[in-house]
Every structure is written in C-alpha cells, then in structure tokens.
Amino acid sequence: MWHLLAVFISGLSLGGMAYLARKLSRNRLPTWIVPVLAALGMFGYLAVYDYTWYSYKTEQVRITQPDADILFFNQKRERGFFKPWSLINPAINSFYIFDGKSKHREQDGEILVEYFMYEFIKDPIERQQVYMAVLNCTTQERAVILQGKTAKATQHEKIDTSDLFYQKLCR
C-alpha cells in the first residue's frame, strides 16, 4: 500500500518539476515532457525498490535475529514484462532463510533433524511462508511441510551428501 503511494508521489514530483520547467521556459519545452518525466519517476521508483528489496529484507532479518547463525539461500529472480529493467538484470523476488535452530533426535535407529525454513516473497503485498522440514540423516531424505497444511501435502525428496543442510546438520 505504501509503495503504491510512493509511486504516485514520485510521478507527481517529477511531472510537477517538468511542468514548472515548462512554465519557466515560457512554454518553449514540448508538452510531452510532463507525462514522460512523470512516467520516468514512477518507473524509476519501482526499479530502485526492486533492486534494494533484498538487501533491505536481509538487513531487517539480521537486526531482528542478531545472535542467530542465519543462512540465506535459494534466491529466486524473475523477469517481468511490466518491469523492463528485469530483462537486463532480474532482481531477487524471493529467498529462503534458515535461522540455525534445529532439534536432533533418534528414532528407530535413525537420526532425525527437525528445523524451520522461512521464505520471504516480494509480491505486491510482501509475504512470508514458514516450512517445517524433517531431515533423515541416516537415509538421506527430507520431508518439507508448509505451515498450516496437512501431512498429505508433504514433499519428500532424496538428497545427497553435498546438500547444504545435510552438511550443516548431519555432522
């Protein structure tokens, strides 16, 4: 909501400056300069927001979790038709973090590690998803459950020893 307001303010500011420049030049500047500069202001704000969102979010996580052993991974970049700057260099739209906290236990002779992963997603309304994961260090399998979903919606996957979580949690 606040970003939409900022987009309009950017457009009005640059469009207003162009209008003022046109009037100060006694209408010697062309009329099309006002809407063009207003659009450039709006697109400029959106581009800056796109490229600074990831660093802002990671800094926000580090401030709220100063003592944690935080691991940032799996950054997703997307290209968009309405974001022409993303065709050249796509910005990060989603990333996962692991806060370093896990529980180890042994069950039926197998070592199980439970931990949470958090996904930050930049949509028009920013959101966060929480995943609970159970890593079986003995059989090298991982089950990931989205918070609020049933066990039937669980994703099972086979992992190898080069997996980041296997190396970190199954020592």
What attributes does this structure have?
171 residues, alpha+beta, elongated, 36% helix, 6-stranded antiparallel β-sheet, 2 domains, single chain
Strand order of the largest sheet: 1-2-3-4-5-6
Instruction: Note the run of SSEs as H and E.
Output: HHEEEEEEH
Structural class: alpha+beta
Major sheet details: 6 strands, antiparallel
Radius of gyration: 23 Å
What percent strand?
25-35%
Q: Topology, please?
A:
Blueprint: H1 2-24, H2 33-64, E1 71-77, E2 92-107, E3 110-121, E4 127-136, E5 141-146, E6 155-158, H3 164-169
Antiparallel strand pairs: 1-2, 2-3, 3-4, 4-5, 5-6
Task: Tell me what you see in this structure.
This protein starts with a helix and ends with a helix. The protein has 2 domains: about 1-65, no CATH class; about 65-170, no CATH class. Helices cover about 35% and strands about 30% of the residues. It is built from 3 helices and 6 strands. It is elongated. With about 170 residues, it is an alpha+beta fold.
